[in-house]
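BUG: 3D viewer hangs when loading the predicted structure for this chain

Environment: internal workstation, default settings.
Expected: structure renders.
Actual: progress bar stalls at 90%.

Input used:
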Amino acid sequence: MPSVLRSWRQWIQPVVMLLYGIILVVCLPVLVVYMEHAGTRIKFEAWLIGCVMAFLTLPVSLWEITMHLVNYTKPQLQKHIIRILWMVPIYSLNAWMGLTFPHYTIYFDLCRECYEAYVIYNFMMFLMTTLNELMDLETVLATRTQVVHSCPFCWLRPWRMGRELVQRCRHSILQYTVVRPITSIVAFVASLAGVYGEGTFLPDRLFLYVSVVNNISQLIAMYALVLFYRATKEFLRPYRPLAKFLVIKCVVFFSFFQEFIISVLVYAGVISSWFGVMDASDVRVISQSIQNFLICIEMLAAALAHMYAFSHMPYRDPGQYQGDCCAAFRSMWDVTDVGHDVKEHLSVVGSSVARRLSRKSTQAAGERAPLLTVPGDGRAEPAPRPPATARRSDQ
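Structure tokens produced before the viewer hung:
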């Protein structure tokens, strides 16, 4: 048994593909029969196309993830890459499950939306880890030409090159890692309570406010990534950062704004007129199914793009010790670093808010202090505070 575990790199790839083949052969016919007899409102042809695209996407992504595990020579970098690569299978399975069980889409979307924020965080940490292995990033950036803000944040004071720029970019992305799961849970609870109103922009429904918060939070996070790339693109050029950035940005932004546009079409009545349905629940199911169908198709292209942008080839080094399979799998699922960074982010935000509140209360106390007139010039100044302890009369 120990010898089998030590030679896991020789058998892990065929085992993964064999398991995938068994699942495909067993589950797919069962699901086809189920969809034919389920009486679902989703057209069977759309479901079948989405199913085929999803099952073509999974082996591409799983193969690249497995190859990174087989060539796990730089754990600090590759753990972030593997987390990013899991984005495509999760999106694809989420969309396909939404097509199969359209009335439960909101439950599946909760997982996808939380993982979206997790991917953006991991991409930022991948870039920072790559640069910190080469240099003292904050010290080197402090000597570089100042990067100014671009639209729509050109009115902000430039973040000083060095520690301020790095930390502000990191915390700008971490806020999305915190905000997105919170808004997803709020949307989930509001949907159960019947006050979410997905696809409607009415002021008495939470969908409008959740969408605004998500848009603002995601805009800040993606802008921070762009600003960090502008400041470090010269150092990152050998690692093809633009391809990696575009792949992630396209998947996250495209799916997000695609969903937003479909919601606008629902609100404008376009979806109901196209499909000839008037019931609000039917319109919602159809709009969600359109989004899931498009994602199933798009994820195959995304899997191929991820395979190119986050290739395992730079990490192939047969002469380097790569650990056993258990260590590699544990490292892949270990998220203690995320918890530590989120805790630090909340601590920094809490300290900043406390300082601002303390400053405002001090200013308010100064404004309320009684004024005394200074003899001779008519000016007023705050009355002096009494001493902490009064002197005794006998001293």
